[in-house]
Amino acid sequence: MTIKVIIAGPRGKMGSEAVKMVTSEQNLELVACVDRRSEGHAIREYPILTEKSIPVFESPEECLHTVDADVFIDLTVPEACFNHAVMAIRNNVRPVIGTSGLTNDQIAELRELAKGNEVGCIIAPNFALGAVLMMKFAQMAATYFPDIEIIEKHHDQKLDAPSGTAVKTAQLIKNTRKNKSQGHPDEVETMKGARGAVDEGIRIHSVRLPGLIAHQEVIFGGEGELLTIKHDSMNRQSFMTGVKFAVEKVMGIHSLVYGLENILD
Ligand SMILES: NC(=O)C1=CN([C@@H]2O[C@H](COP(=O)(O)OP(=O)(O)OC[C@H]3O[C@@H](n4cnc5c(N)ncnc54)[C@H](OP(=O)(O)O)[C@@H]3O)[C@@H](O)[C@H]2O)C=CC1
Ligand SMILES: O=C(O)C1=N[C@H](C(=O)O)C[C@H](O)C1
């Protein structure tokens, strides 16, 4: 069976990789793209779309009403992504969301909508298999080491901080970690932000520099020892196996799944 795919954000760093991946896989068919500034852009920047006569729509509504599709991959920004996902679910097209920065309320709303419409939806804070394992291993380690600092490092074009991966890592850790306030009780920040963001006592630090792609380390401190669990994405192809996996998996589910760790075999 061929899975018919729409991609939103085809000119982006991730979207352009996804276009290459979907158009090169036998069991996937790219049936359309959604690009808010399609006029000339997609055609000039992505000849593959013209070569293969793949339509590009500025309006997601028009795209979803015109094209017969199974899956809607979103690699844009959270504001656009949320609306795209709502429209897709209402049109019985399954969203696969890579875009980071959705709020917990937005995720809860999409969960309800997906459940109500019995439409599969996957939100993947990180599509890289190694990153999913890094999050799971961190969750395991948190049972034994409750003192934790997360350091995520990304390229300087990233819009959201902390990263979706760091938010998800903290959420997984909170499921197993004993509640604990870290550091000295009288600790004072003499420069605001020095100790990073705080999520139930877990510290999260976001680094943004040119030269970086996507990296995270989770550091656990114990009496006389440190454990570091680290993952590095060196390029955006590292995410594509996970995108393909999610597109295939979403065909067989009828509700929302947040995190690939929930559906890894
Ligand atoms: N889950 C995962 O494994 C990964 C997730 N990501 C996430 O994917 C998202 C995209 O990342 P990346 O490709 O690096 O970002 P880019 O900025 O390279 O691409 C984003 C794309 O979205 C488009 N866009 C921006 N605003 C809107 C809008 N309001 N409506 C429609 N389209 C819009 C941009 O078009 P324009 O030029 O018109 O602005 C651009 O083509 C981010 O949220 C990032 O965090 C990234 C890597 C891995
Ligand atoms: O913007 C990125 O690049 C990435 N975003 C995702 C995130 O916010 O965690 C996934 C990966 O880290 C790359």
Automatic annotation (TrEMBL):
Pfam families assigned to the protein according to its UniProt record, in alphabetical order: DapB_C, DapB_N
Keyword vocabulary terms for this entry: Amino-acid biosynthesis, Cytoplasm, Diaminopimelate biosynthesis, Lysine biosynthesis, NAD, NADP, Oxidoreductase
Binding site for NAD(+): G9, P10, R11, G12, K13, M14, G98, T99, S100, A124, P125, N126, F127
Any GO BP annotation: lysine biosynthetic process via diaminopimelate
Pathway: Amino-acid biosynthesis; L-lysine biosynthesis via DAP pathway; (S)-tetrahydrodipicolinate from L-aspartate: step 4/4
Gene3D superfamilies: Dihydrodipicolinate Reductase, domain 2 (3.30.360.10), NAD(P)-binding Rossmann-like Domain (3.40.50.720)
All copies of domain Dihydrodipicolinate reductase C-terminal, residue ranges: 130-264
PROSITE patterns: DAPB
EC nos: 1.17.1.8
Cell location: Cytoplasm
Residues engaged in binding (S)-2,3,4,5-tetrahydrodipicolinate: H155, G164, T165
Top EC class of this enzyme: oxidoreductase
Active site feature: H154, K158
GO MF, any single term: 4-hydroxy-tetrahydrodipicolinate reductase
Reaction(s) the record says it catalyses: (S)-2,3,4,5-tetrahydrodipicolinate + NADP(+) + H2O = (2S,4S)-4-hydroxy-2,3,4,5-tetrahydrodipicolinate + NADPH + H(+); (S)-2,3,4,5-tetrahydrodipicolinate + NAD(+) + H2O = (2S,4S)-4-hydroxy-2,3,4,5-tetrahydrodipicolinate + NADH + H(+)
GO cellular component: cytosol
Domain Dihydrodipicolinate reductase N-terminal: start-end pairs: 3-127
Binding site for NADP(+): R37
PANTHER family: 4-HYDROXY-TETRAHYDRODIPICOLINATE REDUCTASE 1, CHLOROPLASTIC-RELATED (PTHR20836:SF0), DIHYDRODIPICOLINATE REDUCTASE (PTHR20836)
Family that this chain belongs to: Belongs to the DapB family.
Function: Catalyzes the conversion of 4-hydroxy-tetrahydrodipicolinate (HTPA) to tetrahydrodipicolinate.
Subunit structure: Homotetramer.
Name of the protein this chain belongs to: 4-hydroxy-tetrahydrodipicolinate reductase
GN (gene name): dapB
